[in-house]
Design goal:
The structure holds 2 protein chains of 2 kinds. By secondary structure, chain A is mainly alpha-helical. Chain A is built from 11 helices and no strands. Chain A is globular. Chain B is of the alpha/beta class. The two termini of chain B are 14 Å apart. The chains are: A mainly alpha, B alpha/beta.
Chain lengths: 293, 334
């Protein structure tokens, strides 16, 4: 298997070289890695007590200072530490909800595009049905019924956002299946599994990746929206912080740091995902590759 | 050579018949009507024989090729391989794939742009779980004329020329050690200098590996260069078949004559008039009669067959090796 492993190594090193050329993608990746690492190592430095209103010791609604670089909230908690701790919930929900949505959307989308006839028809009707459900309301109801936990919020977001992915993947699957190399593959003896995993999936992967990055971004936004509307996992997240700033009239009080900091965090992470997705797409699509690269 | 008495089941070839279509019919639903893409075809490909299937676009030759490969199910009739009727269970079909392989018209489209040459050629062996994948790939590539194979293994299709891509496709088919190659317009998208190379490769494979081939084409020159036997298809049915020298130098069917007359070296050309053929509305009588230049010129009436041309259905030609034509006029005038 020396040829196969050499090929894999070469492909990987080429991928990294190409990705390195995408400057915006590298910036996006750096922000993402930074955010993820910070979220993971947060327990080494702080714990959940930074979000505790009872033990908070700072002045109320204080502007940024040396002690509190991003100011404090209505209970005197440090915005910096809250944003740090809250990134854990926001990122976790964003990633997992996007993953759930992607899994459902990809499996159903490929199935609807690959199998014709009644299987496709049934999947499409179900997709249409979920598509016309107002997803935010459905997520609110689901979360209300199942009770507020991180798992509930993830499922509520994942289950309501997959139809657009399924539609997208189905359209791409249909386009890929019309190519002659699918015919060649079938003539070589390929079954459904081989065609879908070896040809369709790699071909929809860049689209899927771009879609997933946007999905993570939108899941983070949705989580914030749900939290803002009062449905949350009862844990500090960027969304619940925005909710708090609204509840305590931060805008009228002129406490810009209370609104701006969590908001900027959301914007930065969402942007980073988008930049990464675009760069990955450019690298993974061989037709966009320069000759000789 | 007597071809008149040959029944559909027995074939009077000196070669053993490998792949055979018997009374094959394939129909599609097309805008509410039934399109009879293949409408009764008997065709045999012998061992080590190259048969060219010639006809204009839309005459059903690609459908016939797909049906012979088992990619399309016949509405009626059967495909026989090595004397056995083809079964359509997934296991039986998978085994059949090792015997009969496909080469498509467009080598660029038939290769997944994300797969290296190695992956493209190894696809067949991987599907069938053959051992010594690397060795199979190397030998298939060198047999297809890509030497040394190591130079090509890690290339992507977009880094190769059109001729090299078609060689990769052929190597992918050879990797399964098939007995028959079905090539659908194998050189139509290649430029003239490369066409000769690919044709020479197919002839070499026949000589060295004893590979049989069915070459689907609209190009009579290609048929002349490569084939032992030629079958001319019109509107879902074979109208003339026989050894290539006989059919292409002394065509008996008016349609074959018309096809040959438009070649540059032909003295006078016959331009067919009338509606282009429509497989949803196959005319009664001889299916070619509405466009037949012999009938239009009145020669058929002189021979006294014009009424039969217009009103009497022709028998399906048997899968015979000798020269034969499905034409009342040709039969009447000899």
């Amino acid at each position: 298997m020396s040829v196969a492993s050499a090929r894999r190594r070469q492909a990987l090193s080429r991928f990294w070289k190409d990705f390195g050329r995408q400057r915006t993608g590298v910036v996006g990746l750096a922000i993402l890695v930074g955010a993820a690492v910070l979220a993971v190592i947060a327990p080494l430095f702080i714990d959940e007590s930074v979000t505790n209103v009872v033990t908070a010791g700072g002045p109320k609604m204080a502007p940024p200072s040396l002690d509190y670089p991003f100011g404090t909230d209505e209970s005197g908690r440090s915005i910096l530490l809250m944003v740090w701790w809250g990134s854990r919930t926001s990122l976790l929900i964003g990633f997992l909800a996007a993953l759930v949505s992607m899994l459902i959307g990809t499996v159903l989308g490929i199935a609807a595009g690959h199998f014709r006839g009644w299987i496709s028809a049934v999947i499409l009707r179900v997709t249409d049905w979920f598509l016309v459900l107002p997803s935010l309301v459905t997520a609110l109801v689901l979360a209300a019924i199942m009770g507020g936990s991180t798992f509930t919020i993830i499922m509520a977001i994942g289950v309501t956002t997959w139809p657009s992915t399924a539609r997208l993947i189905r359209a791409q699957t249909l386009a890929v299946e019309a190519r002659p190399y699918i015919e060649r593959s079938k003539a070589l003896g390929a079954g459904h599994w081989h065609v879908t995993t070896r040809h369709v999936l790699p071909n929809v992967a860049p689209l899927l990746l771009a879609s997933t990055t946007l999905e993570v971004a939108s899941a983070i936004v949705t989580e914030s929206t749900l939290a803002f509307l009062g449905v949350s996992a009862n844990k500090t997240s960027w969304g619940t912080m925005l909710r708090g700033s609204y509840d305590w009239g931060a805008a009228t009080a002129g406490a810009w740091w209370y609104i701006l900091i969590p908001g900027l965090c959301i914007v930065a992470v969402v942007m980073a995902f988008t930049l990464c997705g675009r760069a990955l797409e450019a690298v993974l699509n061989p037709r966009l590759r320069k000759a000789g690269a | 050579m007597t071809e008149t008495e040959a029944p559909a089941e027995t074939v009077a070839t000196d070669r053993r018949t490998l792949l055979e279509a018997r009374d094959l019919r394939v129909e599609f639903a097309s805008r509410g009507r039934r399109a009879r893409a293949v409408d009764g075809v008997n065709l045999a490909v012998g061992e080590g024989e190259i048969v060219a299937l010639v006809g204009e676009s839309g005459c059903g030759k690609t459908t016939l090729a797909r049906t012979l490969l088992g990619l399309e199910r016949p509405t009626a009739g059967t495909v026989h391989f090595d004397g056995e009727p083809l079964k359509y269970g997934s296991k039986a079909l998978k085994n059949y794939r090792k015997q009969v392989q496909l080469v498509l018209q467009d080598p660029t489209g038939s290769l997944n742009p994300r797969h290296t040459v190695y992956e493209a050629v190894a696809e067949g062996p991987r599907i069938h779980g053959l051992p010594d994948e690397e060795e199979i790939v190397n030998s298939a590539l060198s047999r297809a004329g890509l030497r040394p194979p190591e130079r090509f293994l890690l290339r992507y299709p977009h880094e190769l020329s059109g001729g090299q891509r078609q060689r990769v496709v052929i190597a992918g088919a050879l990797a399964l050690n098939p007995k028959v190659l079905i090539a659908d317009e194998p050189v139509a998208s290649l430029d003239a200098s490369v066409r000769g190379e690919i044709l020479a490769l197919m002839l070499k494979l026949r000589d060295e590996l004893g590979l049989s081939a069915l070459v689907v084409t609209h190009d009579l020159g290609l048929a002349w260069n490569i084939a032992d036997r030629v079958a001319v298809m019109y509107l879902g049915r074979i109208v003339e078949s026989g050894p290539v020298e006989q059919v292409l130098t002394a065509p008996r069917h008016p349609y074959t004559q018309a096809l040959l007359s438009v070649l540059p070296e032909s003295p006078e050309r016959v331009v067919l008039t009338g509606e282009p053929p429509d497989p949803t509305r196959i005319p009664g009588g001889c299916r070619f009669h509405a466009r037949c230049q012999v009938l239009a010129s009145g020669k058929a009436a002189e021979a006294g067959v014009d009424a039969r041309c217009r009103g009497e259905l022709l028998d399906i030609l048997p899968a015979s090796a000798g020269a034969q034509a499905a034409c009342y006029y040709a039969d009447a005038t000899g």
